[in-house]
Specification:
Low-confidence stretches: 276-325
Oligomer: single chain
Radius of gyration: 41 Å
Strand content: 5-15%
Distance between the termini: 117 Å
């Protein structure tokens, strides 16, 4: 037999098998043929696998959106991934905002209150941007990659074996249908033989029944084998869930680390800047002249407010003098202040306390004393007295 003859016969056999499956599938849809049902356990496993696949895809897509809100950037990263190339490093939104703030602060002047605050805020935003970048990298490795591997690996294998099981089931039911038809034809031939001799016809249908029974045994064996293979693969879904649970814990831990870093960065920034006095919040619709009149120098002497002026520069000659000297000064409290911890001193508006500087202390704070009580106090809440 030549290779060409073998290929033609194989092609004809494949075409015959495909046609047989198509006929069986169509007759089942029309209700003209019986269908072998899978056992309940296998059906439950198939349903569990399909449910796992659908929710895994949804969680994966939404996690990608969470980590990278820009759809164009996601498409670019996808293209680079398919090309097996590393995507170029891209500055994120927090880092960009931080750089703008730092540039603006340097332009306005680092020595001004506003410029200095902008630089501090910008540095914090850049730290948050770095933390965000670390979160994205960690989540991609520990969470997204395992989910994607399941969709593109394990589930593709399950889909392939499930399709084979469907084909084996169609072959089995087609064999059952042929055997049923052969037996019906054999019975009719036997009935006709009682009235007229048709021995040859009976022999033909008897051989057809024998052939169909043999084919049924083969297809049944192939179906059972494929069902077992598919079942073993599907039972691995429980292991997949356990693995994804560990990945989920890693993702939550990465988020926890990220939010803890952000909280600490903002807490440190708040301490550096000090809280804005409530008078600015309640009177933000008033003119800057009215706001400044509430914190102007007293008429009894030449005193200096420590709050920024309307021009954006701090009037701080008295503070400078205090920082250079080691002596004590009296200061009137402008607004109530609640201490954030044991190192700070709570303040009441209009009380007078003693303040002094300590070498190495942050420039936005002074040490304050009230009787036996001592602690750090924010400069922006004080009015130094001569």
């Amino acid at each position: 037999m030549s290779i060409m003859d073998f290929n033609v016969k194989k092609l004809a056999a494949d075409a015959g098998t495909f046609l047989s499956r198509a006929v069986q599938f169509t007759e089942e849809k029309l209700g003209q043929a019986e269908k072998t049902e899978l056992d309940a356990h296998l059906e439950n496993l198939l349903s569990k696998a399909e449910c796992t696949k659908q929710w895994t895809e949804k969680m994966m897509r939404q996690t990608e959106v969470l980590l990278q809100p820009n759809p164009n950037a996601r498409i670019e990263e996808f293209v680079y991934e398919k090309l097996d190339r590393k995507a170029p490093t891209r500055i994120n939104n927090q880092e960009l905002l931080g750089q703008y703030m730092i540039d603006a602060g340097n332009d306005f002047g680092p020595g001004t209150a506003y410029g200095n605050a902008l630089i501090k805020c910008g540095e914090t935003q850049k730290r948050i941007g770095t933390a965000d970048r670390e979160l994205v990298q960690t989540a991609a490795i520990n969470f997204l990659t395992p989910l994607r591997n399941f969709i593109e690996g394990d589930y593709k294998t399950i889909t392939k074996e499930r399709k084979l099981l469907q084909n084996k089931r169609l072959d089995l039911d087609a064999a059952k249908t042929r055997l049923k038809k052969a037996k019906i034809a054999e019975t009719r031939a036997l009935q006709l033989n009682s009235t007229q001799p048709e021995g040859d016809n009976i022999m033909i249908w008897a051989e057809e029944v024998t052939k169909s029974e043999q084919e049924l045994r083969i297809t049944q064996s192939e179906f059972d084998r494929q069902a077992e293979i598919t079942r073993l693969l599907l039972e691995g879904i429980s292991s997949t869930h356990a693995h994804h649970l560990r990945c989920l814990n890693d993702f939550v831990e990465a988020q926890m680390t990220y939010y803890a870093q952000c909280y600490q960065y903002m807490l440190d920034l708040q301490k550096q800047l000090g809280s804005f006095p409530s008078v600015f919040v309640s009177n933000n619709s008033q003119s800057s002249t009215t706001s400044m009149s509430n914190i102007s120098t007293s008429s009894s002497g030449i005193t200096t407010s420590l709050l920024p002026s309307t021009s954006g520069t701090a009037i701080t000659p008295a503070i400078g003098d205090l920082k250079e000297s080691s002596g004590n000064r009296k200061a009137r409290v402008l607004y109530d202040y609640d201490a954030a911890n044991s190192t700070e001193l709570s303040l009441l508006a209009d009380e007078v306390i003693t303040v002094y500087s300590i070498v190495g202390m942050d420039s936005d704070w002074l040490m304050g004393e009230r009787g036996n009580q001592k602690g750090k106090v924010p400069i922006t809440y004080l009015e130094l007295l001569n």
